Structures are given as structure tokens and as C-alpha cells.
Amino acid sequence: MDSLIALGFTKLEAAIYVYLVGNSPATGYQIAKAIEKPNSNTYQSLESLTQRGLLMEVKENPRRYRAVPYQEMLDRLDKTHRQRCQAAATELNSLTPAMDDFQTYSLTSVPQAFERCRSMLEGAEYRVLVDAFPTVPESLVDDLRRTADRGVRVNAKVYQATELGKATVVTDGLSHEVLASWQGQWLNLVVDGASQLNAHFDITGQRVIQAIWTMSPYLSFLNHFGLLSEMVIDKFLEETDGTQAAEHLKSVIDRLGYLDHNRLPGFRNPEGFVPDARNNDE
Fold it and tell me: What sign does the CA torsion over 75, 79, 84, 88 have?
């Protein structure tokens, strides 16, 4: 019955509908007795379900009720839901959205994070940068392709082979080492240097450890150029592999401590960034 309750049925309405699916037609008295609920409450729910077109009734004395076929019931609920969404969209479209909101907001669920990403991509006008671990692009592949197809420049840094159509794909040159050292999955998305989303999921990609979204131009520009710099380095190393220039750049990277993140106190904070960092102390 939980699935019906999720569709908007009350617990009593769900019990009535489920009973009638296998026991139609039945009188209100028979239904109340079978599901062990008071007659008055049962009749109120029967009236509500009938008015919504989810039950049919035989108007005789006493009245008997039949559940409409479940597919018909689902179609009706779907139509009602779409009508309500359209009405809400019409009403909300007449409002003027708040602007210049530079606050940083926390996102608490994986679906919420990905829906925000899709909304950002739909609104992208010029440039999208995305840096995502392997399980993440699977959820955004089609959205990134559509964004690139409509002329937006999309650069994606990935950690395994990923086909993104017209997007420019850069594979991290140290994918194996990076994936081995980070306990979790991450997603960093910057759109037009105007908004950004940073999400850290658990290793399965099913739970949010921390995720934030902001329209702060300052923070978004910082992340934009940080991601772009990493992509330039990875692309350069990829295209000059084995040359003196590549070896020189690698030595510069080494001198600057580019890969020393595992020594940073922030990296080893088990409560914040890397949930399994305690296991990396050995």
C-alpha cells in the first residue's frame, strides 16, 4: 500500500482500493468490516475515491463499489498531476525571481543534486566545465550531449573513457592513482562562470556526503579557472606524451606539490571530506 500512499492516497483509501481490486463489487459495510475500519470513515473515503474517478458505484440499496482497473487509475492520476503541474508553472511563471543571490546552499540528496545539475545545463549559454568521477557521468551523459549539441562549449574531465558527443573530453592522466586515493565519488560543475555545484558522494554514488550550489560569480570564477587549468595540464600531457616538454611539465608539477593532497590536514579529515580516511593512515 505504500506505493499508493506515495501517489496521494490516504492510508485508509489505499486499504479500500487494494481490497476492492480483489473483492469487487462490495458494499461499504463489507469493506469496513474486511479492513477493520469504522463505517463512517470508510464511507467518507469511498465518497472521496468515487468523486476522483478511482472507484465506480452501483447506485442501488445498498450501494456497491468496484475499483477501476489499476492502469486506468494510474492514467487518471498522471493526467491530474500533469494538469496541476501546468497550473503551477503558469502561476509561478508570472512571478519575478529573486536576483543577485550569492549565498551558498546545501543539497541533501543525490536526486536533488542531479536535478540541479540538469537545470544548470539547460540554462547554460556559453561555457560548461565538468569534472566527474566514473559513476557520475552516467547520470548526466544525455544532458551534457544535448548541451553541447545546442552550441554551448562543454569541457569534461573524466576518469575513464566516456563518449559525450560534441563535448571536449579530457581524461585525467593519473586516473588510477586519483581514484585509488579518494574514498568516494565527486562531481564539480561550473556553468558560464556564474554558478557552480560541487558534490561529494559515497563510493557507491548513492549517498551525499556534502554537496553545495551557488550563483556566486566570485566562487564560480575561482572554480572555473581551477578546473580549466587542470584540463589544460591533462590535455597537454596527453598530446605531448613521451616528449621532453611533457617530462619538464611533470617535473614542475612535482616541484609544486601538485599531487601532495594526501598530506593535507583537510584531506585526512574523516568527518568531512574523506569518510574512510582513517584507513589510509597506515
Answer: positive
The CATH number of 104-241, from 3.30.870.10, 3.30.420.10, 3.10.129.10, 3.30.460.80, is 3.30.870.10
Residue 237 backbone dihedrals phi, psi, to 5 degrees = -65, -35
Structural element, H or E, at residue 170 = strand 168-171
CA 68, CA 60: separation in Å to the nearest integer? 18
Fold of 2-79: Arc Repressor Mutant, subunit A (1.10.10)
The pTM of this model reads 0.67
What is the per-residue pLDDT across 128-181, written as a single tens digit (0 to 9) for each?
A: 999 988 877 678 999 999 999 999 999 999 888 888 889 999 887 667 777 767
Q: What pLDDT score was predicted for residue 259?
A: 64
Q: Which residue has the cell 543571490?
A: 101
Q: CA 96, CA 99: separation in Å to the nearest integer?
A: 9
C-beta of residue 150 within 8 angstroms of C-beta of residue 217: no
Q: Where in the chain do CATH 3.30.870.10 domains reside? A: 104-241
* Segment 78-98, tens digit of pLDDT: 998 999 999 998 888 887 766
CA 188 to chain centre: 13
Mutual angle of helices 28-35 and 11-23, in 10-degree steps? 110
- In this structure, what C-alpha cell is assigned to residue 203? 563510493
* pLDDT digit string, tens, across residues 251-273: 887 887 766 666 666 666 544 55
> Which residue type occupies 30?
Q
Q: Could you say which DSSP state residue 1 is in?
A: -
- Supply 127's cell numbers: 561555457
